[in-house]
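Page 42, continued from yesterday. The earlier attempt failed because a stray header line got pasted into the input along with the sequence. Redoing it now with the clean sequence only.
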Amino acid sequence: QVQLVESGGGLVQAGGSLRLSCAASERTFSLYPIGWFRQAPGNEREFVAAISVSGGSTYYAHSVKGRFTISRDNAKKTAYLQMNSLKPEDTAVYYCAADPEGDYTNPTDYVSWGQGTQVTVSS
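This time it went through. Structure tokens are written below.
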């Protein structure tokens, strides 16, 4: 599995923006699709966005489409989640994951996970 580290979370007011980063230490990062997921206390882990190996295909949860943008820079071994127009309901721990073995939207299908970064959106 690939080692992943998320960063960029924090406290932001509703309507604000954050950019999350997911950095990998291994050069094999470029071989894996990447997904972003989030989990709030008491809730199940839910799909946010995913991106193909080359970045040519992206996928978004309906709840974030038009507000969030997933991207990757394989040369930097980093994936990003640009989050705009944040809402209080976006508050969660955000995780990046790599190497899905099936459905990009299913957290159970991912092999590698980062430690998570907290995003808190105040109203």
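Notes: The CA atoms of residues 104 and 113 lie 14 Å apart.
Reminder to self: strip header lines before submitting.
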